[in-house]
Amino acid sequence: MTINVKKCPACGSKDTVPILYGEPALAYPNEENEKFKLGGCFALVDGPEFYCKHCENQWNREEAIEREYEKVSRLKASVGGFFGDSYTIDIQLDRFQLSWNQRNEDGETEIRKSIRRKTADNLKAELKRLDLLNWKAKYVEPGVLDGTHWRVEIHQGDRKIIKHGDNRFPKEWPEFCKLMRRISGKKFS
Questions:
Q1: Domain boundaries, the chain
Q2: Which residue(s) pair with 97 in the sheet?
Q3: How far is the C-alpha of 125 from the C-alpha of 111, rounded, in Å?
Q4: Backbone torsions φ then ψ of 91, nearest 5 degrees
Q5: How many Cβ atoms are within 10 Å of 90's Cβ, its own excluded?
């Protein structure tokens, strides 16, 4: 999923138009086709870039991206293969709960712990830095049947976004694994 910065972050409408700044021509066509909204003579630094025709909200790209990460309520990630250890981490950001699980031929180990609100907020900021929501949906190394499999589920309320791979990873994967180790205090890779 690539974040749709043109979708209204307030009401979710896709009936939006860009905001244009500068002096309008004498007979501009906006009144007839409403393909843009005039923003005034001067562009504002970090000012609004889009206008919602449904709720009249105005926002910029950064605000839209920030809103998508704020909506993350749960993160569940797993990694492993046929041989060796496999790990699962489940972080319920809205309930401030974390569970970590390790499976291998000797059995299963699980821990559960609470996390602080600040930890949850910092995790969302790190996920944004890692551009998690813009990872491709699938990373697969063709022709390889064995190896490392991984999966990340991102929940935003009732919506679930899945990213996964077999023997291929997004470039941010090593940092993502470090983040999972740091928040859980346990191995994840």
A1: 16-69, 72-184
A2: 92, 114
A3: 24
A4: -115, 115
A5: 17
Residue 28 confidence class, pLDDT cut points 50, 70, 90 = low
Identify the CATH number of the domain defined by range 72-184. 3.30.1560.10
Cβ atoms of 112 and 186 within 8 Å: the answer is no
Residues contacting residue 48 through CB under 8 Å, at least 6 positions apart: 19, 39, 58, 59, 60
**59: helix, strand or coil:** strand
Q: Can you tell me whether residue 147 is helix, strand or coil?
A: coil
Give pLDDT, residue 79. 97
CA distance 80 to 177: 12
29 vs 16, 26, 32, 53, 67, CA distance in Å? Answer: 17, 10, 6, 17, 32
What is the Cα–Cα distance from 44 to 21, expressed in whole angstroms? Answer: 9
Residue type, 15: D
Q: Which three-class secondary structure state does DSSP give residue 16?
A: strand
Provide the β-strand partners of residue 104. 107
pLDDT by residue (tens digit) across 92-151? 999 999 999 999 888 899 999 999 999 999 999 999 999 999 999 999 988 776 789 999
Q: How many CB atoms lie within 10 A of CB 1?
A: 15
Residue with tokens 């998690």, as numbered in its chain: 132
